[in-house]
Each structure stands twice: as structure tokens, then as C-alpha cells.
């Protein structure tokens, strides 16, 4: 890992003497591509279909495509609980009970549901939303009755029915048509909340539309669904390859990850995100610092409301090595620093707070070790897990120790490690823990290694497919 970085730093320095020019693509960098996308990205921009429903009478007129678990589900090997479709339907119908929907009008609400992507929901899935909408196409008004509402929407999850998934007990949701071109009851899964103020609130007169998420410069989500995260329990995952995610902070926190990773470039004076190349305008501050500040404010000082003592590792992977990168990171962190949310070194002792910033990649160890340009000593180093002997790395300069799994441990085509590999890992972990550091491997051959790694004491499990983290036990 270090050799690779060394060569790359030299390569970038030679080819790119002007620090703020477009950096040279680092093709030698090992790009680990996730096997799955968390949720089909176009399912995040769909909205409730209009009245383009077939002329069926008192029956399902269409199914949607985003799978939701029907029953409430126990995840994390029995350590966590997520809401299914039936609970969401009851919530909506009970709230809507007695409401009058005028002719041509709508009554809508979105609420939390577990999206299992058509897989075993006890092992695979992420927090998402189901959008409910009652669309009255009659010339007279329609009064919602909770019992009928549950019956109509419940048809969408009926065992053996059109929208039901036999293998995993899930539903695609869809539309139930009351009468002939009369009243439509819609229920559609989505990975993000709606634009409208309809999250766990009834809203009339408008069609729900999903918040648009993109990899550009706009705010990740607005409004931010803060309360949706209230009951999420943290689990030892580290959200890796964040540049691939539309809404990195939200996705990582909705999975309960205690680590997340931002690849940053100093580009044209801005600290921007990107992996192979920077994405101009997509700033570290807008995508990470500001949302985290909002969340921690909301929770009264912690990232996870359910576990206030849990610090979040914000791993900042430096893609540019000039001194300005560290300065820009220190500056961008100012809102979190001002609020007292950053772990820091005080009198030579680590004082943990909501967020622990760890600098990786081309970050300058010496400056971090000396606190040079980091007056509050609130940036720590990502030590080399494979080289913890000696006195270089300590809990005063580092917080995480990482290594490339395949370099440091070797190949592993299945979850069965050789005893030599287990010894290597156990050694790395005990060295890290003796120094008070958190152990992590990157470039895992597969997420099937999480269980053996966790059993050997590895603290952060690198996750590319966050839906997979549903199977990982929550922290107790
Ligand atoms: C989603 O988008 C991809 C790429 O744009 C496309 O190939 C695919 O068919 C879309 N899926 C759905 C369900 O619309
Ligand atoms: C809904 O249906 C009505 C009558 O069938 C039609 O006039 C109207 O244009 C439709 N609206 C949309 C948005 O398709
Ligand atoms: C719905 O409201 C009616 C009165 O409008 C009430 O009689 C009924 O019990 C309510 N149903 C539920 C499930 O709350």
C-alpha cells in the first residue's frame, strides 16, 4: 500500500507541477468496484405514476419495481428491527382515516420502510421510504376509511398476489384501483424521501416526487430526513467508495456505519470529492461537513441518537499531496470544530467527540504528528496496519490503522482463511489495539470476509454494498 502511494505521489508530482491544475488520472490506483449498487439509482427519481392505470375494477392495476419487506424484519443477526410494508400501511391508513379527498385531488404521505432489493430481508437491505397516495378521479369526494384503506393497500402485499415476491416475502408495491377509473391507492418504494413536506405527515393536493439526488454540487438532501435516523443502531461498517454514492452521508448512516470515507482533491482552490478525478463543485464541506453538523445538532451532540457515545470515523482520503490539501481539510472542518464535535488531542490525550477525522492516502504524516497547521489537533492519521512495530504510530497521531487486505494478508476466495492468515490478522489487530488504534482492511476480496474479520477483532468492516451490512450485528 505504502509503496503504491509513494510511486503515485512521485508520479503526480512530476506530471503535475502546478498543484491546482487537473490532477493526472491515477490509473495505477487499485479501484475496487462494488458488486452491487445499493438501490437502482433510477428508482430514486421516480415519483408516483399519474393516472395511467389500466381500467381494472377493484383490483391491482400495476405493480412497481422497488422491493419492500412485508413484515417487520429482524436484522443484524437478531440485534435490530426494521419496519415492513404492513406496518407502514397501517400507519398511513390510520392517519388518513376520516379524511376527505376532493374530486381530482390527492392525499399522500411517505414513511420509513425497509427496502430489501428482492433479497433476504434479514440479511440484505437499507432504510428507505414508501410513498402512499390516494388519487380521487371521481367527480365526487372520497372519504378514507382506515379498514378499507388497509384492505386496498394490503392487496399489494397479498401472499401469492401479483405484486408479491414468493422467495423473500416481499412486495413491489403498486396501485390498487377502487371502482373503474375511480380512486387509486398507490404505494411505491423509494430510497429517498419526497421533496414535499410529507414525511410521516399527510399532504393533500399534490403528487409526491422524490428528492432529486445527484453527484453534482447541490445539497445531498433537502429537507434532510433527520428523524428517520433516530432509531438506527450503529454497526461496525465503514462506508467505502463513497464517491460512488449519490448521498454518501445519508446512505452510510442509514446503514448504521461508524465510518465513512471521502476522497478529496484540492482543485481550483476548492476541496472537492472524486476518486479517479475530482468532481468540480461537489465539495467536502457540502456533502459531509454540513450534513454531519445538522445531524449532530439534531441529536444534541452525537451522530447516532441511539448510541450517543459512538464516534464516527470520517476518513478523508487525500488524492492530492500538496500542503494546501491538509490546510483545506482543516478549514472545511471549521463548522464541526466550532461546535465542539471533533475528537482532539488535549494535553497529549485523545478526547473523543461525535466525529473523529482520520487523514489517509497522500496525507502528510509529519505535519499531523507535529500538529503543524492543525492548531486544535483534531486531524489524526490512518496508520499502516502492516507496519505498527516501532514508535512511529501512536494514539496521539493516529486513530485508525489500515492495510490493503490482499497485500497484507493475501488471497481469500471464500470466508475460510488459512491459519497463517488468521495469525497475521490477529497480530495486526493486537498491535493496533495495544496502541489504542482501530483496525481496518481495505481492498477486501469480498464482503464474505466480514464475519471472520470481525471474529478476529477487526474494528471497521469495509463496505461497498451497504445493503449487505444488514446482516452484521449491531454494536452492543
Ligand atoms: C435504470 O437506468 C438504467 C441506465 O440509465 C437503465 O438501463 C435501466 O433500464 C433503468 N431501469 C429502470 C427500471 O428504469
Ligand atoms: C387522468 O385521466 C383523465 C381522464 O381519464 C385525463 O383527462 C387526464 O389527462 C389524466 N391525467 C394524467 C396526468 O394523465
Ligand atoms: C376511523 O374513523 C371512524 C370515525 O370517522 C372511527 O369510527 C373508526 O374507528 C376509525 N378507524 C380507525 C381504524 O381508527
From TrEMBL:
Belongs to the AIM6 family. InterPro entries: HAT_RTT109-like, PLC-like_Pdiesterase_TIM-brl. It comes from Xylaria grammica. This is Altered inheritance of mitochondria protein 6. GO terms for biological process: lipid metabolic process. Keywords: Signal. One of its GO terms (molecular function) is phosphoric diester hydrolase activity. Residues 1-15 form the signal peptide.
Amino acid at each position: 500500500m505504502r509503496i503504491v502511494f509513494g510511486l503515485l505521489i512521485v508520479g503526480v508530482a512530476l506530471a503535475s507541477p502546478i498543484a491546482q491544475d487537473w490532477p493526472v488520472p491515477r490509473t495505477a490506483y487499485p479501484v475496487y468496484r462494488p458488486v452491487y449498487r445499493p438501490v437502482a439509482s433510477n428508482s430514486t427519481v421516480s415519483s408516483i405514476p399519474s393516472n395511467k392505470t389500466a381500467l381494472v375494477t377493484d383490483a391491482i392495476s400495476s405493480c412497481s419495481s422497488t422491493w419492500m419487506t412485508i413484515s417487520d424484519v429482524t436484522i443484524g443477526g437478531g440485534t435490530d428491527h426494521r419496519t415492513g410494508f404492513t406496518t407502514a400501511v397501517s400507519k398511513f391508513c390510520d392517519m388518513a382515516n376520516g379524511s376527505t379527498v376532493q374530486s381530482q385531488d390527492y392525499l399522500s404521505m411517505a414513511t420509513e420502510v425497509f427496502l430489501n432489493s428482492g433479497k433476504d430481508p434479514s440479511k440484505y437491505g437499507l432504510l428507505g421510504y414508501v410513498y402512499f397516495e390516494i388519487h380521487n378521479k371521481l367527480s365526487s369526494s372520497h372519504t378514507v376509511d382506515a379498514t378499507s384503506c388497509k384492505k386496498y393497500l394490503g392487496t399489494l402485499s397479498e401472499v401469492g398476489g401479483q405484486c408479491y415476491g414468493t422467495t423473500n416475502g416481499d412486495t413491489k408495491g403498486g396501485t390498487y384501483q377502487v371502482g373503474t377509473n375511480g380512486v387509486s391507492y398507490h404505494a411505491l418504494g423509494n430510497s429517498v424521501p419526497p421533496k414535499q413536506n410529507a414525511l410521516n405527515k399527510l399532504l393533500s393536493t399534490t403528487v409526491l416526487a422524490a428528492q432529486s439526488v445527484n453527484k453534482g454540487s447541490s445539497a445531498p438532501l433537502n429537507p434532510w430526513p433527520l428523524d428517520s435516523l433516530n432509531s438506527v443502531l450503529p454497526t461496525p461498517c465503514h462506508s467505502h467508495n463513497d464517491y460512488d454514492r449519490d448521498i454518501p452521508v445519508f446512505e452510510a448512516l442509514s446503514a448504521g456505519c461508524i465510518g465513512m470515507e471521502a476522497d478529496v482533491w484540492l482543485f481550483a482552490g476548492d476541496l472537492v470529492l472524486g476518486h479517479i478525478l475530482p468532481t468540480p463543485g461537489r465539495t467536502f464541506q457540502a456533502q459531509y461537513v454540513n450534513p454531519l453538523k445538522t445531524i449532530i445538532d439534531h441529536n444534541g451532540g452525537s451522530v447516532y441518537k441511539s448510541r450517543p457515545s459512538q464516534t464516527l470515523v470520517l476518513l478523508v482520503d487525500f488524492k492530492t499531496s500538496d500542503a494546501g490539501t491538509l490546510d483545506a481539510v482543516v478549514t472545511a472542518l471549521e463548522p464541526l470544530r466550532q461546535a465542539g464535535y471533533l475528537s482532539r488531542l488535549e494535553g497529549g490525550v485523545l478526547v473523543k467527540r461525535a466525529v473523529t477525522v482520520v487523514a489517509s492516502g497522500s496525507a502528510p504524516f509529519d505535519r499531523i504528528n507535529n500538529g503543524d497547521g492543525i492548531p486544535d489537533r483534531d486531524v489524526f492519521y490512518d496508520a499502516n496496519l502492516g507496519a505498527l512495530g516501532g514508535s512511529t504510530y501512536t494514539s496521539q497521531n493516529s486513530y485508525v490503522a489500515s492495510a490493503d487486505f490482499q497485500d497484507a494478508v493475501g488471497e481469500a476466495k471464500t470466508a475460510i482463511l488459512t491459519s497463517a492468515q488468521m495469525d497475521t490478522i490477529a497480530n495486526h489487530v493486537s498491535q493496533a489495539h495495544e496502541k489504542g488504534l482501530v483496525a481496518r482492511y481495505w481492498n477486501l476480496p469480498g464482503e464474505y470476509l466480514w464475519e471472520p474479520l470481525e471474529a478476529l477483532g477487526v474494528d471497521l468492516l469495509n463496505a461497498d454494498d451497504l445493503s449487505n451490512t444488514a446482516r452484521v450485528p449491531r454494536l452492543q
